[in-house]
Amino acid sequence: MPSSGETESNDKKLSNFLCFAVYSANLAFGRAYKPILDKLNLTYTQYIAMVALSEKDDQTVGALGEKLFLESNTLTPMLKKLETLGYIQRKRDPADERQVRLSLTPAGRDLVAADPGAPLVEATGLGEDFPVVQKSVVRLRNNLLKTTQDNAAKR
């Protein structure tokens, strides 16, 4: 039977940290997506921005940033690149010139509809557990965000 000191050291192993498992899975996803998206001249962030735009047309930069957890100063250069590639259209909101509205072009819709990341669902090896794991990770993220927001409100 391990002593309490041994148990504590095993608990502190990097492989036991959920945060590291999620972080390293994110890195693995990035590596798996890279060759697919390189062929399309896209980064992962550009691709997920397009997927988010395919869900709801005519979004503001701010709304897209909230959905992707990105600040507008990070989004703006990425969106300019997507516009240059012909995948999105950016236009000033006629009701509020300070707002920029985003829409996918037909080429952008076609790219998202082609679902270039589809092979990665199988590559996860999760099979029927895929939707369960995806929902669990979303719940984990939402719980952490709520705790962070609650703690910030207490300060």
Automatic annotation (TrEMBL):
GO molecular function, one term: DNA binding
Listed Pfam families: Staph_reg_Sar_Rot
SUPFAM superfamilies: Winged helix' DNA-binding domain (SSF46785)
Annotated Gene3D superfamilies: Winged helix-like DNA-binding domain superfamily/Winged helix DNA-binding domain
Transmembrane segments: none
PROSITE patterns in UniProt: HTH_MARR_2 (PS50995)
Domain HTH marR-type, residue spans: 15-146
Domain of life: Bacteria
UniProt xrefs under InterPro entries: HTH_MarR-typ, MarR/SlyA-like, Transc_reg_Sar_Rot_HTH, WH-like_DNA-bd_sf, WH_DNA-bd_sf
Localization: Cytoplasm
Keywords, comma-separated and alphabetical: Cytoplasm, DNA-binding, Transcription, Transcription regulation
Primary location group: cytoplasm
BP-aspect Gene Ontology terms: response to stress
GO cellular component: cytoplasm
Protein name listed in UniProt: MarR family transcriptional regulator
UniProt lineage: Bacteria, Pseudomonadati, Pseudomonadota, Alphaproteobacteria, Hyphomicrobiales
